[in-house]
Amino acid sequence: PTLDQFQKRVLRAGERGVLRTAGALLDKVQDLLRLRREVANRINDWANRARSARVYQPSRHTRYTTALEGIVPSDFLRTLRAEQLRHKPRFLQALALRIDRAEHSPLKDDKKAERLRTPEARLAEMARFANPGPACLACQQEYLELLEEFRVSLFAPELGTAQPVSEQRLAHKWQEVENICRRVE
Q: Is the pLDDT score of 18 beyond 70?
């Protein structure tokens, strides 16, 4: 944050009470870590059952672990801001539901996953933007959040989305990412 933003946050924390503010954030982090562990265990349980039933698919296992790492990276305490944690539990719940449902209907899961191929391929394209500026990074973050919402809408629609999402909206947001990030370069 800028010096002004930092000072405002310190002032707000002082008004609310530093311990209360920090305690609430710590509770969120602990809940998120617990849920992340539960989903990681669910992935491992699925893999063990699939191996014993001789239906294990390494590509599916990779998709699940990559999705988990995308939602809550192992270094999230250094890479995510506190406000970015708000929707992470719902994203993790959606992944857990996807794993459960895919075990019973893998073909249906594959069909839904096919709709993610293009939006996910764009994630690799983000790396080609050399030295992205703040506007570019903010737009990329918006794209990532929209992609997670799209996953929720595909695999766990009953959880609801925080904003309207579709393949067209994702394509439009990607165009915005390219326009902003190219302008910066």
A: no
